[in-house]
Specification:
Elements: H1 8-34, H2 39-45, H3 49-52, H4 55-77, H5 82-105
Length: 108
């Protein structure tokens, strides 16, 4: 499964998935660094007062989660050896566990 697959639908889905995960990383880093939620996000999600006071917690979680999703897409988009694919999968799992740990342990 690489970008050279003859089925363009799967290639397009993989590329969209990679772009969405990159957007999640960028959004999470932005929220964690600025420590402010985007106004559209606050209005659409109807965050409570206690949820609005935790931008670092939620931003870091989103950044790590998006990085995990992005790392999972690499073997599907580029040809990598089997060992590198397993290492990327292990890294994605570590990032996922780190995201959950970040969300659970970081409370203010």
């Amino acid at each position: 499964m690489t970008v050279d697959d003859p089925d363009p639908v799967w290639v397009a889905l993989r590329l969209v998935s990679a772009l969405l995960s990159l957007a999640v990383v960028v959004l999470g880093v932005r929220v964690a660094v600025t420590r402010r939620f985007p106004v559209v996000w606050v209005r659409a999600a109807r965050l409570t007062e206690s949820q609005r006071s935790q931008p670092l917690r939620r931003g870091g979680f989103l950044a790590l989660l998006g990085a995990s999703l992005l790392v999972q897409q690499v073997p599907l988009l580029a040809p990598v050896p089997a060992v590198a694919g397993r290492a990327l999968f292990a890294l994605a799992l570590l990032l996922l566990v780190g995201a959950v740990g970040w969300f659970v342990l970081l409370r203010r």
